[in-house]
Amino acid sequence: MTGRTRERIWSLARALACAAAGALLVGCSSRSEPIEIANAWVAATPPNATVAAAYMDIVAHGSDRLLRASSPLAQQVEIHQTLVEDGVSKMRPISELALAEGETVKLEPGGTHLMMIGIASAFATGQTVPLSLEFERAGTIELDVPVMTHGTAPHGSDHSHH
Ligand SMILES: [Cu+2]
After folding, report:
1. DSSP string, the chain
2. Under CATH, which architecture does the 33-152 domain have?
3. How remote is the CA of residue 115 from the centroid of ligand 1, in Å?
């Protein structure tokens, strides 16, 4: 058994133990995943759209940087910031997104988001969109992101289970 395999089994065992103990106990959060993605969604688009925006919460357990993103359904995916200049809201591409340790970075409407440019076809509710995020340290994380409309999209972890 390699050290890496042993490490994986150990972290699985710890994750199971944590789940049994109640996953939200302080000190019980698994540190095996350097980056966690939560509440990811892609906004549904009008029928003839060529762009779509993706949103999510990125939790970094160590400092990291989101270097680039891609999707087989878009020609390119840019990291965008929304800025208000002279009262007009504008989007501007940024080359990377810094993540501080322990911080949750929210990609949300009106703020930072991923812009999918040159999408193959419109995105409708019920569909999922593959997204690949490349982090400097955590490596590549593949996601299947549900398409939602603004009204039904997740707003954060305070939306707990019923
Ligand atoms: Cu944008």
Report:
1. --HHHHHHHHHHHHHHHHHHH-TTSTT-S--S-SEEEEEEEEE---TT-SEEEEEEEEEESS-EEEEEEE-TTEEEEEEEEEEEETTEEEEEEES-EEE-TT-EEEE-TTS-EEEEEEESS---TT-EEEEEEEETTTEEEEEEEEEE-GGGS---TTS---
2. Sandwich (2.60)
3. 5
